[in-house]
Amino acid sequence: MIPIETLHNPGEIVLNLITTVFLCCMTLVVASCSKKSGDSVDETPTTTVADTNDIEENQTGAQGEPASKANITPEEIAALEDMMSDTSSDVESDVDFPGLSAIDVVSGVSLEIHWDQVADVSRYIIIQSTDGQDSVIDVAESNQSSYVVTGLSPNTSYSFKVRILDTSGRIDSNNVVVTATTATFYPPTIISASISPGVHRMTSSQDQIIITLNFDYDITINDSPRIPITIGDRTVYALYNAGDGTDTITFAYDVESDDMDVDGISVGSIDLTSGSLDGPGGSLSSGSLSIDGSASLVVPNSTRLWLDAMQSNSLDLTGTSVNTWNDRSLNSYSVSAASGEEPFFLSDDGDGRPGIDFSLGSKYLRGSAVISGSVARHVFIVARPYSLGSGTTNCAFALSGNESTNGTGYGIFMESPGGSNGLALRVSGNRVMNHEMDTSKPSVLSLSSAANSDVLDASFHVNGEAITSEQSSSSASLSTETLSGVILGGFSVKSATPNNAYDYNGIIYEALVFEDVLSSSERQHVEQYLSDKWSI
């Protein structure tokens, strides 16, 4: 850098100083800032244009502290300020520059100043006037016509000038001052709130429920604010996760193994008794949230299969023929049809419900192992038989055994009551209940059996009502075979191919399989979800 004392023209000093810095060290960065959605201002701010001599009379509030020097060195600032205080003609520019024209209020911490470009300018000098004292805060390039001053205080008055350093190294002497007041910061408000959609369970990549809050200002987290969420019949809390110092804050809840809420969780108001969310104008005063959690579902780790005809993206179709019905439980299971055995997808069953139609005979969807061994199981089926079978017929859903060697099956049959017929669980023995399924609309069927139990111990519910009246029964253990495969639409015994004598005539809308017997409240929760969903 050229020593100041070796130059005779002060303008040359400044021009060389600035040119050296800008050519060798940087490209001038002019700050950019846009007002965030939701910034609050008491009224539309006005700016005041004045001569320096009138500045004290025209300011509308207390002058803020000088803005920080951003892009020039202290030596450059000192040289420029010395030139501005020199009243001799040696430093006076001949360029006609009208000075600063306007100031826009950007936010509570920034103002944007404007001027009209003129020719023969090397730099525009940004000056803050405070209590009659001028301080150079920065310079702008010759092709710039605006500059954003940042780091200011909310609801505070600031006054600025702009002068030119021309290409000869001289400064103009305009005294146009413009004053503006920064916006008033209010306590932060929530612009939007959302929750991570989809199915969540502990043993999957979606093992966290994430709640995202977007604010009008950057937020500082203090202590431990939290958000209550209701999963099933219990309340848990999503805790602060990320975003401190930004306008986007996330809270997270780690899903536990027995959490279940298949119809979507509920989200409460932010608990501000345990912590706060602070902005530049104060703390969030109300934790009220409006979040629809119906698309954020939680299944327990015991969930083994979840087939849902209302989720059209879970179906692989050729025309209306169902090739594959994919699992929603995050276990990556699926049931598929062999060629010629494809059931049909109904977009409307006559009452607006989508479903899978097995009515044409020998239509099956089959899958591999879901559960095995002597474990508890709970099966829910939403089904509508077109007709009821007689004897051992009309099997809607089966957890079958090892089909090619030793399967006894675990089939849910929908038969006409009377004799040995009715709603039945059949294995090598059976339990036949005195219940006639409704053929005019879907029903929610729940069937459960404990680990190491007998078929006689199986429990039936239809549309939430316990079915206890028994037609007939014969004992058989439910733990001696490997109940692995899944068949929708039929039943097989020691055969790789379902026996068409058992073919199901009707629609299946949804099926869930749990490797557990759900509690009474959990069962009721699933039944209510299915009933509401399918308008039963």
UniProtKB/TrEMBL annotation:
<dbReference type="InterPro" id="IPR036116">
    <property type="entry name" value="FN3_sf"/>
</dbReference>
<keyword id="KW-1133">Transmembrane helix</keyword>
<dbReference type="InterPro" id="IPR003961">
    <property type="entry name" value="FN3_dom"/>
</dbReference>
<feature type="domain" description="Fibronectin type-III">
    <location>
        <begin position="97"/>
        <end position="188"/>
    </location>
</feature>
<keyword id="KW-0812">Transmembrane</keyword>
<dbReference type="InterPro" id="IPR013783">
    <property type="entry name" value="Ig-like_fold"/>
</dbReference>
<protein>
    <submittedName>
        <fullName>Fibronectin type III domain-containing protein</fullName>
    </submittedName>
</protein>
<keyword id="KW-0472">Membrane</keyword>
<dbReference type="Pfam" id="PF00041">
    <property type="entry name" value="fn3"/>
</dbReference>
<feature type="region of interest" description="Disordered">
    <location>
        <begin position="36"/>
        <end position="71"/>
    </location>
</feature>
<feature type="transmembrane region" description="Helical">
    <location>
        <begin position="13"/>
        <end position="31"/>
    </location>
</feature>
